[in-house]
Design a protein that fits this description.
The complex is a heterodimer of chains A (about 180) and B (about 200). Chain A has about 180 residues and is an all-alpha fold. Helix content of chain A is about 85%, strand content about 0%. Chain B has a two-stranded antiparallel sheet. Chain B has about 200 residues and is mainly α. Chain B has a domain of about 100 residues: Rna Polymerase Sigma Factor, Chain: A. In chain B, helix 1 crosses helix 2 and helix 4 crosses helix 7. Chain B has eight helices and two strands. Chain B is about 65% helix and about 0% strand. The chains are: A mainly alpha (about 180), B mainly alpha (about 200). Chains A and B meet through helix 1, helix 3 and helix 4 of A and helix 2, helix 3, helix 5, helix 6 and helix 8 of B.
Chain lengths: ~180, ~200
Amino acid sequence: MSHQPYEELIFEDEVLPAEKTRFLQAHLEDCLRCRELSDAWHGARLGLMDPEVSEPTHGFVTRWQARQAERRRQAARSQVSWVLSLALLGSGFLAWPIALEVYSLLEAPAAVGSAVIREILSLGLACRLAGQFMRALLVEATAQLPVTAWLGIGLALLGFVLAWALSLYRFAFQPVE
Amino acid sequence: MKVVEGTSEAVWIERARQGDDGAFANLVGAYQAPVYNLCFRLLGDGYEAEDAAQETFLKAYKNLSRYDPDRPFVNWLLKIASNHSIDRLRRRGTRPVTDLEEAEHLPDTSAGPEAALALEERRRRIWRTLRKLSPKDRTLIVLRYWYDYTYEDMAAALSLSSGAVKSRLHRARMTLAQEWREREGVPVRLGGTQDEPSAV
């Protein structure tokens, strides 16, 4: 026979109606298995009625706040690591063609000196040309632009620099929420 | 609506959602006991329960945007706590934990030393019995008998169907009864044996 309906009555948490109680009692008188189950369950149920509430030790909130702050620091550190790793990776990609160039130069050591001198000379020439160009531009711009325009340009440049610095700071150090 | 230190819980939640750490700290203070108690009941170890409760609040704060204000906040917290504790129990596997078993509580002698000892013995025995259950079944029993959860609440907390909750609870109660009986030295019969003389 199936004991399932009686087990459900034994495990019922609410008080049983009189009719169901009689029905169960009649079965328990005849069925040793269900009687043992009923006794055991009532014993276990008493153990489950323990009203004691365990509480954390004093200072739980403070410890939580400390843990929260530590997690934020960890997140910030991780963020900085990612930024540096990406920057290194990008630098690596950029450095690759340069490294190839240097390698090819080193394969012919005699050419290295002349190549370096040639590069320095061309760089100096480029700097000189750029300086002349900037000077001419400034002379021309000074003649054309009023002082207030210069002030505006200066302020705008300063604004850009500040915005750039702030963006870098936020990206690198502000914790991830 | 629960009132936390004179301010409505909803206000603290809203402030915490906007990033106010202090507001969430108030919620931690208000709900530390039920969350810790659940973790302790499930894990049976004071240090692990503290850690699990702390992690529960960290997770809750991080995922506060997912909280549905139409449901009780404490239930949402207990859902996170129970799932976190279940994960811990699964990771722990068979590693023994003896805090509850090894008389972490000082016996309450207000009802007399004999009654206190009996209560303590019953606590240890129920803990040993609970350890025989799977993490999810243990959680169901704890939520049902210590937190008065309904079947629907348990189903929502553990992402189970109501039918699964009922069948799991039935199985868990059966295991508890058998273990309880076996700790008395008499195993519960599993087969149907009618008309036999009673063993009790």
